Amino acid sequence: MTHTRAATRTVSRFAALTAVLAAGVSLYALPAAAQGEIRVAWYGGNWGEAFRTCVAEPFTKATGVRVVPEIGTSTVTFAKLQQQKDAPTLDVAYMDGGISEMAQAAGVLEAIDPTGVPNLAKALPEAIYKADKSIFAVGSGYYSLGLTYNTKEIKTPPTSWNDLWKPEFADTVTIPSPANSSGVPFVMFLNRMWGNPPGDLSKTFEKLKTLKTALYFDSSGAASNAYQSGEAIIGAHFNVGAWDLADKGLPIGFAVPKEGVWATDARLHLVKNAPHKADAQRFIDTALTPEASACLAEKLYLGPAVQGVSVSPDVERKLPWGVGGSVKNLQLFNWADINRDRAAITDAWNRELARQ
Amino acid sequence: MSAAMNRALPLLAAPVAFFAAFFAVPMIVVVSSSLMAGGVPSLGNYARVLFDQYHWDVLAATFRIAGLTTVACALLGYPLAYYLVRVVKSRALRRTCVILLVLPLFTSNIVRSFGWMVLLGRNGLVNDALVGVGILDRPMRFLGTELGIVIGLVYILLPFIVLAVGNALAAVDPALEDASSDLGATPFDTFRTVTFPLCLPGLMSGIVMVFTLAVSAYVTPALLSGGKITVFPMLIFQQYSTVFDVNYGGALSITLLVMTLVLVGLAGWIGNAGASATGRKAQ
């Protein structure tokens, strides 16, 4: 008797579960069947979340087209684009500066046409990237590598990159290694800052050798971890990562030193022979609205790459250029130069710094 | 014979296809790319790797770290396996111990290495404890040292050697040990001449596994070195992920593979020679 009852209960529970599953599946499948979808490559973690909230959701709301994210770093996305060159499944790809130029050179990008993406007119002139007179990428927001410090240990905010060499900070400094996308450009940035000739980095490496570091970070996560644990109390970090730590209540400050900051951006690309080109263009158009930019500024502190964006004062001071700055204050290097010297700088770094 | 072969062939097709697609093909791609420089076939990449003292220094550091890791894993893992198989009598307790041993494998290496970064840091638990107890006057540097990397690798690789040795120990027939002590051998002699040689193959396979995994480890050394020590997999990763020189990266990969195979082969040969020598002595 009890046995039968238990069996009945199991059956009904199973039926309920199936019903829920079926409902879930149909909810998931219906809009796709009715309206179609596009595939967009973007990054993981809070970046991907922000792109979903700020761009994908408004886009789906306006068009009914579902956005299927493909999560990966810029490098991974670039590798995917090369593999699927003949039959792409991706429509739009977010990639960082540097990788963006490589993708252009590899011929996996379609020109972004202002008639298909009218909001291009709103983009800052610096954020439009052209090769052979056609637009291969458009900026979606800037981020910078600034001076980050522990506000509990350091009371007066540092004002210069040279402060890292102060004796009181010995063995507590962190800067990016070439395994990080900012590593090679940071060396070039210091080289320019110290007035050394662009083609000769030997003096810069001599100076870097005298920097007493706790660690060289290879990922943004490793940098956050070092500041959080107190392993590093001063050094370089991205404004996105540093303010994220500060927002979590940690004693972390971010300063734009007098020599300025190196910066780059996350960019939007239209994939060559994208299966859903019209919708892909509309997606890029949505991403270039002031609303989407403001939303990304609020969530990630990405500096807007379109005109007419207004954000709250608290968000404004956390943007990559700091208080009262603009894109003009960012040192945006030509990625072609960086990519050309990348192998040599990485090799010099390995030999000079990455060995005890 | 041929009928049996015919029946076995379709069964073999799946693993062979899998092996070809996910091992042979990528390997061929890496080898062939390593033999190209500037679009033409060339041995230039290998010359660049082999005729440069820097690479030999990095290779030495890589093998030193892997060697120390292997020794530490063997010294810690063997007694642990012995304890689990021979000393723990309760099945439930043994099962719990094995689960505790294997459980960390379910967490990503990245997360576990981050954990060690926190523990081994200047203000980390390990330094706090050592200073608190009075062993150290002030915090010791672990991050950015070979010791720190070895600690992280031993923690990650220990289960492999314990499981290999444990299986070998469990397979040793207790009658052989009984016979040895009946014939008047002390427990230590029995262990030295009977038990230990019998589980040597298990220990060797554990050692080879740990060594090859330690040589090829990327995440743990990359995080725990703080970028101040370079091991070979870090050079390879750099070429593939940031410099995008797959030709040079391929040559680095093949160099590491060949050197590791040579070392493992050498160790196996020495192990065999040693085993047959003790075998002869026992006779």
TrEMBL record, chain A:
Signal peptide (residue range): 1-34
GO cellular component assignments: outer membrane-bounded periplasmic space
Keywords, ordered alphabetically: Signal
Transmembrane segments: none
Keyword Signal included in the entry's annotation: yes
GO-annotated molecular function: polyamine binding; thiamine binding; thiamine pyrophosphate binding
Pfam families for this protein: SBP_bac_8
Signal found in the keyword field: yes
One GO process term, biological-process aspect: polyamine transport
Protein's name according to its UniProt entry: Putative spermidine/putrescine transport system substrate-binding protein
From TrEMBL, chain B:
SUPFAM superfamilies per UniProt: MetI-like (SSF161098)
Any one of the GO BP annotations: transmembrane transport
Subcellular location, record wording: Cell membrane
Pfam families per record: BPD_transp_1
Cellular compartments per GO CC: plasma membrane
Transmembrane spans: 61-85, 97-119, 147-172, 193-219, 248-271
Ranges where the ABC transmembrane type-1 domain occurs: 59-267
Record membrane topology: Multi-pass membrane protein
Main location: membrane
Domain of life: Bacteria
Keywords, comma-separated and alphabetical: Cell membrane, Membrane, Transmembrane, Transmembrane helix, Transport
Family assignment from sequence similarity: Belongs to the binding-protein-dependent transport system permease family. CysTW subfamily.
Stated name of the protein: Putative spermidine/putrescine transport system permease protein
Organism of origin: Azospirillum brasilense
Lineage: Bacteria, Pseudomonadati, Pseudomonadota, Alphaproteobacteria, Rhodospirillales
